[in-house]
Amino acid sequence: MLVGTTHAGNIGGAARAMLNMGLTRLVLVQPQALFPCAEATARASGADDLLENVQVFDSLQDAVQDCILVFGTTARERSVAWQIFDPESCAKKIKETSGEIAIVFGREHSGLTNEELDVCHAAVKIPTNSQFSSLNLAAAVQVVSYEIHKAHLISETHLKPRHPSAPAKELEMFYAHLEQTLIEIGLHNPEKPRRTMRKLRSFFNRSQPDSSELALLRGILTETQRSIKVK
Ligand code: SAH
Predict the structure, then answer these.
(1) pLDDT digit string (tens) for 56-84?
(2) In this structure, are 7 and 81 located in the same domain?
(3) Which ligand 1 atom sits closest to the C-alpha of 112?
(4) Which residues neighbour 55 within 8 Å (Cβ) at sequence distance 6 or greater?
């Protein structure tokens, strides 16, 4: 949600920043810029659907009425008691919450008023140079949207089903095969074991191979053994 935006270009820039990060609902509250307009469309660089579906409200209270969580972004440390999040922890909170969530951005020159911040449940501050802390509005939208997208990607990666890791028995068979091959190619002497096998075990344990990956690795070992016997 952009409140009282004065430059149409920032509306377009925010739309582009959001769509790049997979966010599609842009809300304007009392926009001061003429909208829709050519400058917003130009800066949106193709995020036209998003601009066409923009909702406009007369007050922030009306805009957030269906939201269960409202973040107000601010460049300044405000003397308010609520929790201040950085964009990454804000994104984490969003991931853990189900329901409508709003992120509110203020005016280019003066940010959000205290009354508007009162409507918000928590604050988001992008860490910056303390002597020069105010980002361009669309840039601030970009940073917060990026963190939301990143948090979403990470959860997808974690949820991605993978084959179960191979059981210990198969891993031990692989390690025995690996050790035998290393002996045959002269890279390992069981009389003077050093730490070779321990290091290799730790490396493979860390990557938790599944059965098909172990079969592939053992295929390589078998071919290695065969090729040195042929010589
Ligand atoms: N002079 C204003 C800054 C306005 S910048 C002020 O001091 O508040 C326009 C909007 O971009 C801000 O209202 C806020 O929504 C966002 N923004 C800019 N810099 C930010 C930062 N460091 N952290 C969080 N939001 C920021």
Answers:
(1) 999 999 999 999 999 999 998 766 667 89
(2) yes
(3) 13
(4) 25, 26, 27, 28, 63
Distances (CA, A) of 201 to 60, 92, 138, 169, 211: 59, 35, 49, 13, 16
In a domain, 160, yes or no: no
Pairing of strands 55-57, 69-73: unpaired
Query: At 89, which CATH number?
Result: 3.40.1280.10
Of 86, 67, 103, 94, the closest CA to residue 154 belongs to 94
Q: Do 178 and 145 sit in the same domain of this protein?
A: no
- Helix, strand, coil percentages (3-state) for the chain, rounded to 5, are 50, 10, 40
**Whether the CB of 111 sits within 6 Å of ligand 1:** yes
What does the pLDDT look like over 171-199, one tens digit per residue? Answer: 999 999 999 999 999 988 888 777 888 88
* CA separation for the pair 12, 191 (Å, rounded): 70
CA–CA gap between residue 63 and residue 29 (Å, rounded): 7
188 & 108 share domain: no
Instruction: Tell me if 197 CB under 6 Å of ligand 1.
Output: no
Nearest Cα residue to atom 5 of ligand 1 = 108
10 and 124 inside one domain: yes
Taking Cα atoms as reference points, which of 148, 34, 27, 175 lies closest to residue 89? Answer: 148
The whole-model pTM stands at 0.75
